[in-house]
């Protein structure tokens, strides 16, 4: 568990050079690493909880054995005060038996307590490293996204500025100029195709307006 956690930390701490060389998606890989590290921490928390429970169980058994030792000692003293040496002897024998158990339980308890402290220390280190790696991951993800965006923009700009794009714009420009030339030519041809009759007809229209204007003046003067 701890070995895998350290391996993940080493990979993330090296800024994922190997993953980038293999063209792997660093964002997805970082998320997976963080999930694995989080699972490791949960496993470690479970292991620490079990170890603490074992430590408490041994402590309780040791306390019970030691309490029995004290009890038998008091009983042996009480038997001697009553001049009952046989009862005192049996109390002492039972006390010694419980003392052996208490000594063994004390050793087991001390060992379990030491293991619990070491596991708690390791768990605290894992959580601290996890937070550090989380910050590192956020930074690497931001850099990866920025690199992707820059690459995409560069490719887009490259496509815009390539010869094919320029040729396409030039062809469209030529077509527009051709349409403009055709429009100007059609207007010139229309002007040239006007006949003399058309021009005289226009003149007649002007004369008709003049006649109507003269009649109107005459009428107004008469009135």
Automatic annotation (TrEMBL):
Top-rank taxon, per record: Bacteria
Signal peptide: none
Composition bias type Basic and acidic residues, residue spans: 132-148, 163-208
UniProt organism field: Salimicrobium jeotgali
Name of the protein this chain belongs to: Phage shock protein A
Family statement: Belongs to the PspA/Vipp/IM30 family.
Region of interest: Disordered: 93-117, 132-223
């Amino acid at each position: 568990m701890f070995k895998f956690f350290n391996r993940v930390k080493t990979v993330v701490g090296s800024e994922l050079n190997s993953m980038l060389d293999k063209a792997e998606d660093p964002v997805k890989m970082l998320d997976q690493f963080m999930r694995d590290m989080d699972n490791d921490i949960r496993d470690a928390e479970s292991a620490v909880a079990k170890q603490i429970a074992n430590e408490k169980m041994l402590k309780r058994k040791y306390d019970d054995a030691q309490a029995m030792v004290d009890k038998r000692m008091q009983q042996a003293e009480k038997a001697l005060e009553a001049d009952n040496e046989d009862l005192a002897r049996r109390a002492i024998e039972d006390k010694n038996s419980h003392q052996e158990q208490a000594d063994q339980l004390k050793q087991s308890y001390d060992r379990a307590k030491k293991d619990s402290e070491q596991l708690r220390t390791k768990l605290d280190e894992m959580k601290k490293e996890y937070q550090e790696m989380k910050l590192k991951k956020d930074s690497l993800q931001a850099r990866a996204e920025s690199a992707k965006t820059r690459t995409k923009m560069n490719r887009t700009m490259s496509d815009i500025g390539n010869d094919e794009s320029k040729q396409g714009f030039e062809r469209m420009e030529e077509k527009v100029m051709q349409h403009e030339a055709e429009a100007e030519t059609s207007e010139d041809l229309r002007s040239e195709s006007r006949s003399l009759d058309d021009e005289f007809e226009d003149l007649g229209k002007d004369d008709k307006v003049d006649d109507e204007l003269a009649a109107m003046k005459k009428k107004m003067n008469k009135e």
